[in-house]
């Protein structure tokens, strides 16, 4: 909370507030450069209305890349209806990337990867937590922060084996009886997800 | 029945009024009630008008109170959803940065508003900001189109920017908002609209009384590549290794589409919260207003009533004294 305060104070540009901007000057320029350009252009053209806020005003700035590799990886797992993990410090995560299972350790090279339905395992000391992800994206930043954005993530112990078998059979049926490309693609997606679920339960 | 009641009241008040003193202060009210009586022609029915008005104001007060309760319960339901979805857009902004001042040829402004009214000024604010963005991004060789979600913004923007409206969606809140619905909507928009930059305008829910107009910018994959090459905020994008998918541009396209649907989901939830919160405060001030009006009308009613009683008495008394002397 306090880290955002200097940015707001800076915008007000009061002489007293300038004192506060010093300690955080490494964070500020990247965030406010684009914003101030927007704010200035707005103020020139539309002086009567306050400019709208932009998302970076609501977000804490990310830490810069450290010079040494940190010992822990910070993981954020977000879903549309919940943030399952937010800023959790772990040793390793294994994400189900489209090219296969990918392990991410602290100091991993910056990557953007698409995810396919599969298991995400979070390793913290001796605990391993497994979630079944429906698909999404994973970003690994150079400062050892991993963002995983998925549509659904359920712990593996909540998945019902019978329903998985039924679903797999159903979609295989649909693929056989599919006529158009769209139907074939939909059936194929269903089969992919259910096979991954099956593999998650057995493997 | 009214006459009998007044006569009864008259008999009760007759004793003190027979003394000469109270007549003077009553004269002014007498005169005014005389005027009212001569205007309306009939005696005690002048209270009827005020009574009708009081009944309708009381009904309005009840209705607005009920609407406030309904809005409060809807807000409770949707507020947790909106707060949980706030983590969704943050990774994208962390990766791709926030670029509201990007200079592109094809801008599309997605305005999110409500379908129902009586929610204060949030829809007008969104429309004003959208118009401002339109003005900011207008220029030679640049075009700026609108995609409108919600009846209220459509009604306002159709008036002067009809040719710029590309798509309009209404009745989005018939079923509770969920990600699948928004993903389908986002898909619709992306398929039918050519864009270089999408600017989503909505009201962010800060608290029950504070709604901040906000705009989020989502760039198309080509613009992302261009900005990455140009440097600046997106300059670091090239340092990221791209995995999955055949080519970098395919992954970037999936990324931007996913970003759009995530940002839209959060924006729609926040706007829905703001709508309910604004409706709560609008209905609250309306009930308070109705309460004030009711107080004033009650005073007028009592004055009218007392004046007509006094007139009745004066007539009786003057009639009686005329008979005697």
From TrEMBL, chain A:
All residue ranges annotated as the ATP synthase F1 complex delta/epsilon subunit N-terminal domain in the record: 73-145
Q: Where in the cell is it found?
A: Mitochondrion inner membrane
Q: Does Cell division show up as a keyword for this record?
A: no
Record key words, sorted: Hydrogen ion transport, Ion transport, Membrane, Mitochondrion, Mitochondrion inner membrane, Transit peptide, Transport
Q: Does the keyword Isomerase apply?
A: no
Task: Give one Pfam hit by family name.
Answer: ATP-synt_DE_N
Query: Would you identify the family this protein belongs to, as annotated?
Result: Belongs to the ATPase epsilon chain family.
Q: Which PANTHER family match?
A: ATP SYNTHASE DELTA/EPSILON CHAIN, ATP SYNTHASE SUBUNIT DELTA, MITOCHONDRIAL
- UniProt name for this protein: ATP synthase F1 complex delta/epsilon subunit N-terminal domain-containing protein
Which species is this UniProt entry from?
A: Rehmannia glutinosa (Chinese foxglove)
UniProtKB/TrEMBL annotation, chain B:
Q: Which Pfam families match?
A: ATP-synt (PF00231)
Identify the keywords attached in UniProt to this record, alphabetized. ATP synthesis, CF(1), Hydrogen ion transport, Ion transport, Membrane, Transport
The record ties this protein, via InterPro entries, to: ATP_synth_F1_ATPase_gsu, ATP_synth_F1_gsu, ATP_synth_F1_gsu_CS
The principal localisation class reads membrane
Signal peptide positions (record): none
What is said about its interaction partners and assembly? F-type ATPases have 2 components, CF(1) - the catalytic core - and CF(0) - the membrane proton channel. CF(1) and CF(0) have multiple subunits.
This one is known as: ATP synthase subunit gamma
Q: Which organism is it from?
A: Rehmannia glutinosa (Chinese foxglove)
């Amino acid at each position: 909370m306090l880290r955002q305060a200097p940015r707001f104070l800076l915008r007000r540009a009061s002489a007293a507030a300038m004192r506060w901007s010093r300690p955080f000057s490494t964070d500020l320029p990247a965030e406010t450069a684009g914003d101030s350009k927007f704010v200035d252009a707005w103020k020139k053209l539309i002086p009567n209305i306050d400019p709208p806020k932009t998302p970076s005003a609501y977000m804490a700035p990310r830490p810069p890349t450290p010079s040494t590799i940190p010992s822990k990886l910070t993981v954020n797992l977000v879903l549309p209806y919940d943030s399952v993990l937010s800023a959790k410090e772990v040793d390793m995560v294994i994400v189900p990337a489209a090219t296969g299972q990918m392990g991410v350790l602290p100091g991993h090279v910056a990557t953007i990867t698409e995810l396919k339905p599969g298991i995400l395992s979070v390793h913290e000391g001796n605990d391993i937590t497994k979630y079944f992800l429906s698909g999404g994206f994973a970003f690994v930043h150079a400062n050892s922060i991993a963002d995983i954005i998925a549509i659904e993530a359920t712990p593996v112990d909540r998945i019902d084996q019978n329903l998985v078998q039924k679903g797999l059979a159903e979609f295989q049926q649909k693929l056989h009886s599919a006529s158009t490309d769209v139907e074939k693609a939909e059936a194929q997606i269903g089969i992919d997800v259910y096979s991954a679920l099956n593999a998650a339960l057995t493997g | 029945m009214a006459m009998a009641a007044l006569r009864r009241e008259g008999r009760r008040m007759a004793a003190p009024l027979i003394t000469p003193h109270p007549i003077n202060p009553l004269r002014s009210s007498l005169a005014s009630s005389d005027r009212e009586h001569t205007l309306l022609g009939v005696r005690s029915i002048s209270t009827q008008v005020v009574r009708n008005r009081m009944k309708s104001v009381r009904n309005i007060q009840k209705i607005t109170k009920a609407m406030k309760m309904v809005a409060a319960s809807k807000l409770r339901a949707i507020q947790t959803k909106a707060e949980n979805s706030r983590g969704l857009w943050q990774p994208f902004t962390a990766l791709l940065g926030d670029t509201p001042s990007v200079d592109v040829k094809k801008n599309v402004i997605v305005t999110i508003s409500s379908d129902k009214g009586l929610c204060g000024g949030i829809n007008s604010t969104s429309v004003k900001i959208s118009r401002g963005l339109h003005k900011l991004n207008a220029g030679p060789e640049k075009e700026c189109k609108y995609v409108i979600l919600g009846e209220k913004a459509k009604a306002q923007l159709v008036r002067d920017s009809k040719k710029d409206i590309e798509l309009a969606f209404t009745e989005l809140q018939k079923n509770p908002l969920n990600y699948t619905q928004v993903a389908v909507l986002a898909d619709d928009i992306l398929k039918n609209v050519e864009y270089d930059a999408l600017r989503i305008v909505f009201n962010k829910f800060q608290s029950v009384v504070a709604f901040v107009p906000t705009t989020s910018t989502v760039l198309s994959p080509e613009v992302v590549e261009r900005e990455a090459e140009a440097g600046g905020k997106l300059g670091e994008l090239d340092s990221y290794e791209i995995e999955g998918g055949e080519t970098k541009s395919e992954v970037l396209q999936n990324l931007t589409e996913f970003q759009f649907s995530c940002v839209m989901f959060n924006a729609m939830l926040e706007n829905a919260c703001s709508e309910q919160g604004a409706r709560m405060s609008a209905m609250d001030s309306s009930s308070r207003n109705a309460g004030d009006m009711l107080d004033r009308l009650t005073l007028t009613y009592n004055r009218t009533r007392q004046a007509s009683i006094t007139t009745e008495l004066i007539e009786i008394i003057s009639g009686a004294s005329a008979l005697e002397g």
